[in-house]
Structures
1.
Amino acid sequence: DGGITQSPKYLFRKEGQNVTLSCEQNLNHDAMYWYRQDPGQGLRLIYYSQIVNDFQKGDIAEGYSVSREKKESFPLTVTSAQKNPTAFYLCASGKGRDSDTQYFGPGTRLTVL
Amino acid sequence: QKEVEQNSGPLSVPEGAIASLNCTYSDRVSQSFFWYRQYSGKSPELIMSIYSNGDKEDGRFTAQLNKASQYVSLLIRDSQPSDSATYLCAVNWNSNSGYALNFGKGTSLLVTP
C-alpha cells in the first residue's frame, strides 16, 4: 500500500524542547518537502530535498533542521530556537527531476504548551 | 518576490451551480500550475495540474490557464455539498537546486443544499 506517512498525528511540546517529526514514503520519490500551515497563512516551505544527502532551505527554515540519509525518509526537527512552533506540519513528496507534482502526507499537528 | 494570490472567500454557491475559483501569480517564468482541495483538519489533495494555456477538463473540474494574464482558474460544475472545502492554488518556481511550489492562501468554498 503506497503512500506518505507522518507521525505522530498530534504532538505536544514544552517550551525549550526539541521535537522530531517523522515523514516516510514508499512511492520511490526522489523529492521530499516540509511545509508549515497556520490559520489564514497558507502553506509555507520550510525545507526541501531533491536527492539523498542534499537539502535546501525554504522560506522559513530558521529554527528547523532536517536530514535526508535515506530516500524514503525526511525527518524534521523543530528546535527550541523556533519561537512560534505551534502549527500544522505537512510533508510532501514528488518524483523530482522533470516533475514538480507533489503529494501530501496526513500531517502532524504540533502544539507548544 | 514570488506571490500567488487567491480570494479568501468564503465563496458560497447553491448545490448544482458552477463554482469559479481564481488565482493570480507574479512569477512570469512559472510553467506548472496545480489545484489542491483541503478539507478542514486534513492535508491537501491534488485535484488537477495544468501546464499549457487553455482549458483542461477532468470530470466535473475544469482548470483554465492564461499565462499572458498570469491567471489560473478552477471551475467546478454541478457543485455538491461534499465539494465544500478550501481550494489551494500552487505555482512552481525553479531554483538552482530543483523545483518547489508556491501556494496561495486558499479560497474557502461552501456549497449549500
2.
Amino acid sequence: AQSVTQPDIHITVSEGASLELRCNYSYGATPYLFWYVQSPGQGLQLLLKYFSGDTLVQGIKGFEAEFKRSQSSFNLRKPSVHWSDAAEYFCAVGSNTGNQFYFGTGTSLTVIP
Amino acid sequence: NAGVTQTPKFRILKIGQSMTLQCAQDMNHNYMYWYRQDPGMGLKLIYYSVGAGITDKGEVPNGYNVSRSTTEDFPLRLELAAPSQTSVYFCASRTLYSDTQYFGPGTRLTVL
C-alpha cells in the first residue's frame, strides 16, 4: 500500500541556517512525489514535484528536493532559511493513475531570529 | 480568477445534523478532491471526481457523500454528523494534464 512517512514532527532552525526535511515513501511503481507548504489558516501550496528525469528538482521559494530511489526518500532542502518559511510542510505521493494522493503527517517548521 | 473557493469557512454542528460543504473552481479543472485534515494526521482523501457525473471513494469515505453535476462544483455532504467528523476539510482541483493540485482555503468543522 502507498504511504508517506515524515519522521520529524517539528523542526526548529535559526534564520539563515540550512534546512532539510525528511520524507520516505512506500509505493510499488515509479512514484510521483510532491512537497507542499501550508501557512497557518491557509490551504496547501505546491513547492515542487518529481515525476521522472533529473533526481534533483528545483521548486519555488528557493527549495529543492532530491529523489533517491535506493533509499525511498524525497528530502526537501533549502540552503538558507528565512523567517517567512515558518509553516507546515507536507510530502505526498501520487498514484500512477493520478487519481489518488497520499500525504505524510507533516513537519512543522519554526524559524528563530 | 478566484481559483478554488470553499464555503463556509467555519461551522459548528450538533450530533446528527446534516450539512453540505461547498467547493467551486473556476479553472475548468477536470479533477476535484475532498480531503480532511486532522491534527498530526496529515490529509486523508475522502472522495474524488474525474469529471462531471463521475465520483469515486478515497481512503476515508464513510459518513460522507458527494455529487458532481457540473465541472465547477463538487459539494461534500455530511448526513448525520458525528464528533469523529470534526476536522478541517480541504477541496482541491487539477487539470487532466498536470498532477499539480490547487487547494481551497479550507472549512473548519466542529461537531458537538
3.
Amino acid sequence: QVQLVQSGAEVKKPGASVKVSCTTSGYTFSTHAIHWVRQAPGQGLEWMGRISGYNGNRNYEQSLQGRVTMTTDTSTSTAYMELRSLKSDDTAVYYCARAPLGPYINFDYWGQGTLVTVSS
Amino acid sequence: DIQLTQSPSFLSASVGDRVTITCRASQGISNFLAWYQQKAGKAPKLLIYAASTLQSGVPSRFSGRGSGTEFTLTIGSLQPEDFATYYCQQLNTYPLTFGGGTKVEI
C-alpha cells in the first residue's frame, strides 16, 4: 500500500534551518511528484512547492523563493524540504503529498504531517 | 495567482441535511479543481478531483460540479463522520492554491 512517512517534530530558533523528510513506499517514485503543503495553527492550507520524482524539476511558491529547497533521493524514494532563515510565522504543520505527473494533478496520498515550531 | 473563494466559511447543519459548499475562482480553471476533507489533527483527504470525479473509496453522497470559475461540493445526506473542514484547490496553474476552507459543524 502507498505510504508517505514524515520525520518527527522539530523545534527551531528564529534564523535557523529545518529539513523535513518524506519517505515513500508502495508505488514507483518516478511516476509522481511530491508536493509540500503547510498549515499554521488554526489556519488554512498553503501550497509551498513541488518536485518531480521523475526528473527533479521544481516549482516553488514565490513568497518562499530563496528560503526553500526541495530535493529527492531516488535511491530511497525520499523527498526533502529544507526551509532556511526561519521566522515565528513559519510555525506550522508541514505535509508532503504525492500527485501523479501529467495534466490531472490531485493529492491522493499525504504524509502524517511534521510540526515545526519556531521559537526563541 | 489564482484566488479561490469558498462560501460559506462556516456552516451549521444536522445529520441527514443536504449541504452545498461553493468555490469561486478568480479566473477560469477549466475543471482543474479538487476537494479535500480535513479532520482535526489529521492530514487532508482527497474527495473529488477534476471537479466531479469521486476518488476511490469516497462515499457516493459526496458529489462535485462545475467548470470555469464556479464549483460546488454537495454532501447528499450529512453523516456524523462528515463534520470536518472542507477545502477546494485549483490545479490549473502554479502556484497551486487552496480556498480558505468551510467548517461544517453540528
